[in-house]
Amino acid sequence: MTGVGDDELYRQYETVNLYRRGPGAKIELNRPDRLNAWSNQFSLDLRAAISEVTDNPEFRAVTVTGAGRAFSSGADLKEAAERPGGETLDVYRRLTEQYHPIITGLRLMPKPAIAAVNGPAAGIGLSLALACDLIVAAESAFFQLAFVNIGLVPDGGSSLFVPSRVGFTRAAELAMLGERLDAQTALNWGLINRVWPDGEFAAQSDALLDRLASGATRSYAGTKRQLNRWLYERMDAQLEFEAQIQREMAASGDFAEGIAAFAAKRPPRFSGA
Q1: Neighbours of 200 (CB within 10 A)
Q2: Which residue of 37, 100, 173, 237 has the smallest Cβ count within 10 Å?
Q3: Measured distance between the N- and C-terminal CA atoms of the chain, rounded to whole angstroms
C-alpha cells in the first residue's frame, strides 16, 4: 500500500486511498503501475472518495494527488485496446456516467479542492486537475491535452476549464498540438497556481491543505459559488456537448488508428477519416 506521509488512512478503495490530515482530506490516486490511468474501477473508486469528502462535515478541504511518479496519465488505453471480441468502447456512456460526476463533484463541492500534481497530468488526468480550485505542481510535472494524439477531442470539462484559465489562443494550442507543457510554463500561462522544487513539493502542498482546512470554510464555499456562477454556469451543457462530439470521434477511423498505434507502440498514421 502506498502511503502519504504520516497521514491517517481513512478509507482504502481498490484503486484510490483516502487519507485524513486533521480537518483536511487527501485523495491519492493509486494505480502507480499504470501511471494512475483511469480504468472502470478507478472511476468508481474516485467518485466514491469525492462523495465521502463532500458529505463528511469533518473534512473542510481536500487535496487530490497521485501515487508514484504520475498524477494521472489519463484514460487507460490498454484497457480500451484489449476489449474482448472487438467490443466497441461506449465513450459517451463512460463520460456521462463515470467521468462527469467526478468533475462536477469537485467543482460543486462546498469545500476548497487542491490538485497537487506530482508528475504527468494528461488527458482526463489534466481535466481532473483543472476541476479543482487550486493547482500546484512539482517542477518535474507536466500537463498535456493528449486527446488529439489518438484522434479524440478534449473532454472531462477541458474545453471549458482550459480557456477559462488561459484564453482561446493557448487553449487551441494545447488542444490541437497535444504537446507537453512543463510546470513552469503552465505557471507562466496561468494554467496553474504554484510550482515548487520536487524536494519541497510534498511539504508545501501539505501546508496549503492545512491552511485551507483550518480556514473560513463557508467563505471558500461562497467564493466557489461565485466563480461557478460567472465562469461555469453552463458546465453541464458543455460536458454534454463534449460527450456528443467525443462519441463522433470515437467512431472515426483516426481514433481506431490511434488506439492501434498505441497498442503497437508506434506513431499513428492518421488519414482524416
Answers
A1: 12
A2: 237
A3: 44
DSSP 156-189: TTHHHHHHHHHHHHHHHHHHHH---EEHHHHHHH
In terms of Cα–Cα distance, which of 55, 70, 45, 69 is closest to 25?
A: 55
> CA 212, CA 196: separation in Å to the nearest integer?
18
* Angle value at C-alpha 199, between 128 and 60, nearest 5 degrees: 45
The CA angle 8-14-16, to the nearest 5 degrees, is: 50
Question: Cα Rg for the chain, rounded, in angstroms?
Answer: 18
pLDDT in tens, the chain (273 residues): 344 456 899 999 999 999 999 999 999 999 999 999 999 999 999 999 999 999 999 999 999 999 999 999 999 988 766 655 555 679 999 999 999 999 999 999 999 999 999 999 999 999 999 999 999 999 999 999 999 999 999 999 999 999 999 999 999 999 999 999 999 999 999 999 999 999 999 999 999 999 999 999 999 999 999 999 999 999 999 999 999 999 999 999 999 999 999 999 999 999 999
Instruction: Using CB atoms within 10 Å of the CB of residue 147, give its burial: 0 to 12 exposed, 13 to 18 middle, 19+ buried.
Output: buried
Distance of CA 17 to the CA centre of its chain: 16
Alpha-carbon gap, residue 256 to 105, rounded angstroms: 31
Q: For residue 113, list its beta bridge partners.
A: 62
Whether 226 contacts 232, CB under 8 Å: no
Confidence (pTM): 0.95
What H or E segment, with its residue span, contains residue 128?
Answer: helix 124-130
CA distance 122 to 156: 12
**266, exposed or middle or buried, with CB in 10 Å at 0-12, 13-18, 19+?**
exposed
